[in-house]
Fold this protein.
Amino acid sequence: MTDAATALFRSLNSPLIVATTASNGQTAGCVAGFHTQCSIDPVRYAVWLSKANHTYRVALFATHLAVHFLDVADHELAARFGGLSGDDVDKFAGIDWTPGPGGVPLIDGCPNRLILQRATLWDDGSDHLCIVGEPIDASVGSHELDPMRIIDADDIEPGHSAGARGTPDDLTSTRMGASVVDTMEDLAAGAGHAVDLPGGH
């Protein structure tokens, strides 16, 4: 990518979210900057998760994803979910959260959020996976949201480098089981195509 493209993307200064999910008895969450509404009728919202993250591996088998829109006052939350790795720590320890549909963690202190029911996945072989979901619930906080943006998180060191990738062996180490590993290998074999997931409805 050219320096000019990098500068252009950075100038957009995208708002940040915390995406949370749950599957196979595990909860996970990470900060993400790649997300957008991607359809009007029917309404759909897309989130791209880094394959370096524990959240990516949990989200592969989840039915729901929660999108928490961060406020500029949420720097501590951004540091927790963006600067720590779910491979090493429980990011939800010490914070208040409530299980939502499919067990997805809803962070009590972050009221501006969407709950998505997963519709499709898209993997084109790059370092992020796209999850497209149908919004089934939304909430808005009592104060007007002042979005936290990429530049506001410049001081947060990512919990994983962008080059790190999860593998089926990593899934085994997180005790997801052989059947889950087989499923991930099937998904990987279809990389580059949209994947319709029967568990999403």
Notes: The chain is about 20% helix and 30% strand. The longest strand covers residues 128-139. The two ends are 38 Å apart (CA to CA).
